[in-house]
Amino acid sequence: MKVPSCIVILLLLTCLPLVSCSAGAPSPTVGPITLQYTAASQPWLTSIYNCAGNTVIITDQTAADIQDLQAVDLAIRLGQPENLPSPAYQIGTDDLLVIVNPQNPIKKLTVAQVRSLFNGQIQNWKDVGGTDARVQVWAFTKAEDIQGIFDHLILSDSPVTSMARLASNPNEITQAISKDINAIGILNRRLKTSGVSDVFTVTSMPVLAFTRSNPTEGISNILSCLQK
Hints:
This protein has helices spanning 5-23, 45-52, 111-119, 145-153, 170-179, 217-226, and strands at 33-37, 57-61, 74-78, 88-100, 136-139, 165-166, 183-188, 197-211. The chain is α/β, with parallel strands linked by helices. It folds into two domains: 33-93 and 207-226, Periplasmic binding protein-like II (D-Maltodextrin-Binding Protein, domain 2, 3-Layer(aba) Sandwich), CATH 3.40.190; 95-204, 3-Layer(aba) Sandwich (D-Maltodextrin-Binding Protein, domain 2), CATH 3.40.190.10. It has an eight-stranded mixed sheet with strand order 2-1-3-8-4-7-5-6, sandwiched between helices. α2 (45-52) crosses α6. 31% of the residues are buried.
């Protein structure tokens, strides 16, 4: 039996929407996010990875003074710079500590003692109630966020003693002080280990994230997640 042509055309038109719907629209993809972070802000990377989900994060450890928001999507650091980039978002807090070897008999220092130890006016532990031994100061470069905060609040922006040894990262300063009973340095609390003891709290610092003027939806979602 021959099927009328009008019925065939009607059947074809009925099936067309089903075919087009079954193909579906392609899902939008999110490109990699570039991130600069300071050595002291490293503990927040895990939270950023968790908030980013499957989005690829390309990271670059960069000192605070040379972070470049024109080159990356996101930057994180400790402490609020004088010329605050905009926009900025607080994603946490941390404490800046003065640390010594756990075997050092000094368990607490005053701000005046800390200042004199780091600027070189006091060079022997006996002058602050400790043993008769030469003080070994450890510091970071001024470009690092926590060193800049320490220099400003404790040393009034004067230099650390020229006898100080410079650490390239927090792990180096932690290991050095854990092996030297006469060493002293600074570290943020989130990176403190059992190998060192804190004898003075300098300040509580905001942990800040900076973005370009118009952050993408993906960046905004990560920031919202970090602030929860």
